């Protein structure tokens, strides 16, 4: 019940969130942009962002793995990668206050998407749902997501459901042309009867929600 149906392969995504020391964010981003390619040589990076609104001094990055054995092999390889250890890991470690990671699957009805163009902003929305998993709230949650998609003001990138971490957590990654474009779209959506009805049904299963506006780094595949 905690997991419910998921895609029929072993692919999962590790979602990492770092709290960076406030005075060190500029230095942290410079190091990441310069040296992250050492880490990217070992496994696929989906995206790397820093928070602009909704959270302070946080960075989010998502890594794709074929299965858990793949992740184990990658972790072993980077532990023995002297360039990664010397130029990236050792440089950012003193700049970070806290690290958090989760393993998550894309929900079965979602494929990882891409924005229609570069230069926009991303919105990371975390929903803490009631215990019971998608068997309880999956259909209603999907209807609410689709209702927002159908308004046309925003682009869905991915919907991730946790497997390790706080369970019954769903992260939704959206792309918008700009914060103002997103604000205008949200205003219109709140006046759309289809969206209102779908959201009203979905929030019956909602415990909490948090939104963070994200800016992609230069090194991020998703820009």
UniProtKB/TrEMBL annotation:
Residue ranges of every copy of the NIPSNAP domain listed in the record: 13-111, 122-221
InterPro entries reported in the protein's UniProt record: Dimeric_a/b-barrel, NIPSNAP, NipSnap_domain
Xref: SUPFAM superfamilies: Dimeric alpha+beta barrel
Xref: Pfam families: NIPSNAP
Gene Ontology terms describing biological process: mitophagy
Gene3D superfamilies recorded: 3.30.70.100
Transmembrane segments: none
Gene Ontology CC terms: mitochondrion
Recorded family membership: Belongs to the NipSnap family.
Protein name: NPS3A protein
Source organism per UniProt: Bombycilla garrulus
Species lineage: Eukaryota, Metazoa, Chordata, Craniata, Vertebrata
Gene of this entry: Nipsnap3a
């Amino acid at each position: 019940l905690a997991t419910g149906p998921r895609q029929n392969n072993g692919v999962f995504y590790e979602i990492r969130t770092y709290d960076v020391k406030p005075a060190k964010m500029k230095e942290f981003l410079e190091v990441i942009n310069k040296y992250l390619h050492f880490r990217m040589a070992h496994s696929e990076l989906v995206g790397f962002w820093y928070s602009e609104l909704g959270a302070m001094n946080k960075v989010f990055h998502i890594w794709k793995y074929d299965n858990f054995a793949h992740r184990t092999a990658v972790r072993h390889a980077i532990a023995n990668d002297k360039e990664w250890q010397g130029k990236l890991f050792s440089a950012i470690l003193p700049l970070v206050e806290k690290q958090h990671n989760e393993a998550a699957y894309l929900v079965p009805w979602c494929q990882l998407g891409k924005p229609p163009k570069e230069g926009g902003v991303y919105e990371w929305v975390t929903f803490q749902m009631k215990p019971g998993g998608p068997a309880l709230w999956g259909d209603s949650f999907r209807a609410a997501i689709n209702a927002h998609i159908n308004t046309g003001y925003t682009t869905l990138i991915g919907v991730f459901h946790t497997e390790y971490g706080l369970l019954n957590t769903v992260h939704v990654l959206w792309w918008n042309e700009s914060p103002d474009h997103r604000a205008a779209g949200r205003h219109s959506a709140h006046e759309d009867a289809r969206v209102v009805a779908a959201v009203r049904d979905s929030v019956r299963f909602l415990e909490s929600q948090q939104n963070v506006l994200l800016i992609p780094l230069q090194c991020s595949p998703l820009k």
